Amino acid sequence: MAQYDPGAITINPWPPVRQLPDGTWKRVWQVALKEDMLPDMQLDALSSSISTQIVADLRAVDQRLSHIGSNDFAVCLQQTAPREITASVVTQQDGWSDEYYFATYQLFKCIEERIGTIDKIERQPKELWRPWRRS
Known about the structure:
Helix content is 27%, strand content 26%. The longest helix has 19 residues, at 43-61. It has one domain (23-128): Alpha-Beta Plaits (2-Layer Sandwich), CATH 3.30.70. The chain is globular. The chain is of the alpha+beta class. Strands 1, 2, 3, 4, 5 and 6 form a six-stranded antiparallel β-sheet that branches. Helix 1 packs across helix 2 (98-114).
């Protein structure tokens, strides 16, 4: 039997999720990029497009997720510095629901594909986060 090494565990600091007055749930991610964002980046349109893509991806993964609609997972991207954005995620269900783990990792991939190379997520190197971390 292989020796278990608790030091090999990587803890990712998920930001807190809080319930809003309307009953939805919100979590705000801090994402640092390796390069400055393009000055004409349309983050509102991109937020909507990414939300739509993630909901479609969730529904395609498993028929049991076919109930998830466009209001169930909404992303709002905001630039906070030339190389930093916040990614606010508002969900209808508690933000700790299993399907939202997958959706969050999809969000990171979308940011990398559509905005720029991620350097850090919540102040940790992106390589410590899925989908880049392999263990």
